[in-house]
Amino acid sequence: MLLGTAALAALGATAAACGKPPPPPDLDDLMAQLDMARSDSRLASDAATTANPAMRPALAAVSSERSKHAEALSDEIARMTGEPTTSSPTPTTTSVQQATPPTAKDVVAALRTSADSAAKTATQLSGYRAGLLGSIAASCTAGYTVALA
Amino acid sequence: MTSVEPTGPSRPPDADAAALFDAVATEHSVIYGYGLVSAHSTPEENDLVAASMSEHRERREAAIEMLTGRGVDAPLPAAGYQVPTQLDNPTDAANLAVRMEEDASVAWRAVLEQATSTQERGFAVQALTQTAVTAARWNSLLGGAPITVGFPGGAE
Fold first, then answer.
1. Which of A128, A145, A147 is nearest residue B146 as measured by Cβ atoms?
2. Which ipTM did the prediction report?
């Protein structure tokens, strides 16, 4: 027990000497998922404004679910780093998207990409993070195969 | 659904095998429950009942193989199960289907969180995704909105 404490103390000293500790290994994965969730949420809400009325509730639901995914991901990132998320919440809209409003079809394509990415990342992480990304992948897949189909 | 009299092999001590064991037990109960859903649903729902049932059967067989592959005896189906709600009509049947898919989502998310190999996680993600999609199909049939949830199998 005493030996363990001493070893930990020594480790702490080394980390302090090297300045900031290196970022946790899962951070990049979660940041990438966070950006996708935010971007899908915006895309779906933009699409809802011009979509035919029958599609609007489903697009709004997708937008809300992707925004909840972003929230859960940024909570997990904050837990991991000990500080609030610093990722730019500013929209990264491209000139193409500005020229023509997105359609439900664009949202389906985006969800498909996001579902694949979250599913792949879920297999590479473990514990709660794997579970969270699995649920996100499942939600995106149900969104594009059932809700927006 | 809860089994009436749990019998058979005991739950393994390792967290990952235990989660898989629980998921097989859940799949047993879901397959039993789809028999009831089938009895109470309309002819138009036959395709969805059949597709859901065969998906769960296939997944159960694969999961049993994964368990036995690691030297763990899979749980046996119970002689009977307590259904959480009374089933009188197609709406009750569809609601039970949604609830069973949600139970399966919870079981597979637990497998995903406890798994120690990429392969097992891949299987669990696929199972979690399929149960979420099937739940959405039943919800869509019920006509409520929204038909999807943000975190299938999760408490977020």
1. A147
2. 0.95
> End-to-end distance of chain B based on CA atoms, in angstroms?
23
pLDDT, tens digit (0-9, with 9 covering 90-100), for A8-64: 444 444 444 456 667 778 999 999 999 999 999 999 999 999 999 999 999 999 999
Q: Show Cβ contacts of residue B115 under 8 Å, excluding neighbours closer than 6 positions.
A: A126, A130, B16, B19, B121, B124
Please name which of B135, B141, B133, B146 lies closest in space to residue B44, comparing C-alpha atoms.
B141
For tokens 């397959």, name the residue.
B31
Q: Smallest Cβ distance to A142: which of B112, B124, B133?
A: B133
- The residues in B 125-144 lying below 8 A from A, measured between CB atoms, are 125-126, 128-129, 131-133, 135-137, 140
* Residue B75 · residue B63 · CB < 8 Å: no
Distance from CA of A69 to the nearest CA of B (A): 7
Angle formed by the axes of helices B118-142 and A104-124, to 10°?
A: 150
Give the model confidence (pLDDT) of A18-29 as tens digits.
566 677 789 999
- For B109, which residue in chain A has the nearest alpha carbon? A131
In a 3-state reduction of DSSP, which class is residue B3? strand
Rounded to whole angstroms, how far apart are CA atoms B90 and B66? 35
B32, β-bridge pairs: none
| Calpha distance B156→B150 (Å, rounded) | 8
Query: Which residues, given as ranges, of chain B have pLDDT below 70?
Result: 4-7
Looking at the complex, report in whole angstroms how far the Cα of residue A56 sits from the nearest Cα belonging to chain B.
Answer: 11
The pTM assigned to this predicted structure is 0.88
Task: Give the nearest partner residue to A145 out of B131, B133, B150, using CB atoms.
Answer: B133
Residues in B closer than 8 angstroms to A69, CB to CB, are 150
Domains of chain B are 13-74+86-142 (1.20.1260.10)
